[in-house]
Design a protein that fits this description.
The complex is a heterodimer of chains A (233) and B (81). Chain A has 5 helices and 11 strands. In chain A, helix 1 packs across helix 5. Chain A is of the alpha/beta class and 233 residues long. Chain B has a single domain, classed as 2-Layer Sandwich (Mth169, Chain: A), CATH 3.30.1280.10. A 3-stranded antiparallel beta sheet of chain B has the order 2-1-3, covered by helices on one side. The longest helix of chain B is centred in the C-terminal third of the chain and has 16 residues. The chains are: A alpha/beta (233), B alpha+beta (81). At the A-B interface, loops of A face helix 1 and helix 2 of B.
Chain lengths: 233, 81
């Protein structure tokens, strides 16, 4: 795995992400500053971490989405390169047009920082091959704007094409408004682009990869990606 | 030349911030507020042109590319002279 972690001013979860990528794949990622116009040669995974790029000014992710490095990410994604955006990274992917829809203020107006349960809808993607379809995983969220919405036609397409990979659920996998902590439409926590190589998700799987923190449910995502990329070589 | 770009949420898009402001106005005892929708205002100075149409075109570009997310927001450009 030759991952590149993008670093924007105001991002604060890039080290968690780098630590996890190294831990799971054995290779430390390249840290790529937002002003760069290219990605390191041989990059096979771009990760946009969480945090508060540009202090969430204007709209979450809006300014980061227009930075020079994002043109390189667009070109990389257009050629089929794998892109993972977590939390602010998901917001940046939506703002950059790589994913449809937008993350609005949480319905309850509160910043939510706690563990949530996610139902993994599919296991036949590079991002979820480390899980079984229907499996429920526990991972933390930490966001004020995670309420995913898009127009009805887009939602119908996402659902019809199986592009919702993660959904907020009960510990038993029940999709229920009581377990949808931010009001996202259909409990959507993570979606794929049309080509299936760009994933955006609000929760932080990178924070649940070591037994010492009490849960390793996030590990499957990174282990699956590492396996996928190792086979692709 | 001075201009104002006003960005508002599209009709039907849930506005929890507007709702909270609405609730706060009620709790202040301000009567007759039926609903509140919040938005953003950008006051922009344009240089290098005195052509209104050109300035409007420029600001529309700015709004489409950055100031508004047209998935959920509408915008209005007013060149005030």
């Amino acid at each position: 795995m030759n991952a590149a972690v993008l670093v924007f001013p105001g991002i604060n979860r890039e080290r968690d992400m780098a630590r996890t990528l190294k831990l799971v794949s054995g290779t430390a990622p390249a840290m790529v500053w937002h002003a760069e116009t290219g990605l390191p040669a041989g990059t096979d995974l771009v990760v946009i971490p969480g945090g508060f790029s540009y202090g969430d000014y204007l709209r979450c992710g809006a300014i980061a989405a227009r930075s020079p490095v994002m043109d390189a990410v667009r070109a990389f994604a257009a050629k089929g390169g794998l892109v993972l955006g977590v939390c602010n990274g998901f917001q940046i992917l939506c703002e950059s047009g790589l994913l449809p829809g937008v993350l609005m203020r949480n319905q309850q107006l509160k910043f939510i920082c706690r563990d949530v349960y996610l139902k993994v809808e599919r296991s036949d993607t590079p991002f979820t091959r480390g899980y079984n379809a229907g499996q429920v995983i526990r991972v933390p969220v930490a966001h004020g704007e995670g309420n995913y919405i898009a127009d009805g036609e887009t939602i119908a397409r996402l659902e019809g094409e199986g592009r919702v990979l993660f959904r907020y659920s009960s510990p038993d996998g029940l999709i229920d408004p009581n377990w949808n902590h931010n009001g996202a439409i259909n409990g959507i926590a993570g979606i794929l682009n049309e080509a299936g190589n760009v994933l955006g998700m609000m929760p932080h799987p990178e924070n649940h990869v070591e037994a010492i923190v009490g849960c390793t449910d996030g590990r499957g995502l990174f282990a699956g990606l590492a396996e996928h990329l190792a086979k692709a070589v | 030349m001075k201009a104002r770009v006003t960005v508002t949420l599209k009709t039907g898009v849930l506005d929890p911030q507007g709702k909270a402001i609405e609730g706060a106005l009620r709790s202040l005892g301000i009567e007759g507020v039926a609903s509140v929708r919040q938005g953003k205002v950008f006051d922009i100075e344009i240089e290098g042109t005195a052509d209104r149409a050109k300035a409007e075109e420029l600001l529309k570009q700015a709004a489409d590319k950055l100031l508004a997310n047209t998935v959920v927001e509408n915008y209005r450009v007013d060149v005030v002279g």
